[in-house]
Amino acid sequence: MSKSKYWIAFSSIEQLDSSFIQRLYNYFGDIEAAFNANLKELSDIDGLSVNKAEKFVELRDKTDVDKAYNLVVDRGINFLTLSDENYPEMLKNIYNPPAVLYYKGDLSVCNFERTLAVVGSRRATFHAGEALNKIISELCGTDICIVSGLAAGLDTTAHNAAIKNNLKTIGVIASGFDFVYPTSNRELYNKIENGHGVIFTEYYPTFEPLKFRFPQRNRIVSGLSYGTLVVEASLKSGALITANLTLEQGRELLCVPGLITNPNTQGIYKLIKQGAAIATCADDILNALGWEVKPAVQTTLDFSELDVDEKKVYDALQLEEKGVDELISLTKIPLENLLTVLTMMELKGIIKQVGGDRYKKV
């Protein structure tokens, strides 16, 4: 632990980035020696300007190492450094990986060998949300881990769909843990932290969610992942930045096609024309990434256990999801009785509600 506090102290200096910290660490081979280096020692590093060295020493001398470390510990925040064995291997291999990864949640529940990034528009269309929910539902119960940025829009859809379908999920945020952004995702933060995955950030707890930190965060989303699924992206969007980072990192890029009249698909079709794979179902993702995953355990439904009305509902849902009005029309079951039947079938795990008053087979 004695060495860890120097990683934290480095990270607590807001004017430094990970590449500078790594540069010093790689040169000295010891994080404590790197942090305590004097101007003479720093001047021996090829390419490090005198101004940069002097600025670092000035900032370093104002930093209380123990205080910086204790602030993290007192908030109950965990962390990984580049020297830790548990630091995600895929992320370590990118250009400029985070020197420190702060996290909340349980690393052990996430399968870092089956990570899929999902990115898209903050102002997503209904169609995009439906398409993403469909694809993630087809991965239900597998060991695939969904990675996204915990932003509004499709990031939120991806995390919620993962949780709903018994998948683990990793959120990567663009601030320290003193902030929840957007505030509407506070409940989602809590769900991920408490059993559904991990939230990562490279930022010291007190660092605010400033605009420039969001594109920086994107390299971690793609860097943690074997592939990135882009659901909607305009020509000038964070999702397109993440897509380009995915290609730079040598990872697989997949796109969900959408309406050509939607401005948010202009980036999608640009990527497809440049060679990105098209994904309209989970199998497209599995094939592109060469994954064989263990599906959820399927139990054979015993039709003798269904009563007459349950059998009618089950038959009506054979091909596609349906709303309550459609089910009333098809089954001729009165509304009050139908709602009771639907509730009982949900409790038995035969069907599930997929939005509003619509239902589908499990």
Q: In a nutshell, what does this entry contain?
A:
With 362 residues, the chain is of the alpha/beta class. It has helices at 4-11, 18-28, 31-35, 39-43, 50-61, 65-74, 89-92, 126-137, 154-164, 186-196, 213-223, 238-248, 266-273, 282-289, 308-316, 324-331, 335-347; strands at residues 78-81, 100-105, 115-119, 145-148, 168-172, 197-201, 227-230, 252-255, 277-278, 322-323, 351-355, 358-361.
CATH class of the largest domain: Alpha Beta
Q: What integer value in Å does the Rg equal?
A: 24 Å
Overall geometry comes to: elongated
The number of strands is: 12
Strands of the largest sheet, in order across it? Answer: 1-2-6-5-4-3-7-8-9
CATH fold category name of the largest domain: Rossmann fold
Average pLDDT metric: 92
Profile the largest sheet: 9 strands, mixed
- Would you list the SSEs in sequence order as H and E? HHHHHHEHEEHEHEHEHEHEHEHHEHHEE
| Helix/strand structural class | alpha/beta
What is the CA-CA span between the terminal residues? 48 Å
CATH architect. name of the largest domain: 3-Layer(aba) Sandwich
Number of domains: 3
Helical fraction equals 40-55%
Which stretches are low in confidence, meaning pLDDT under 50 for 5 or more residues running?
none
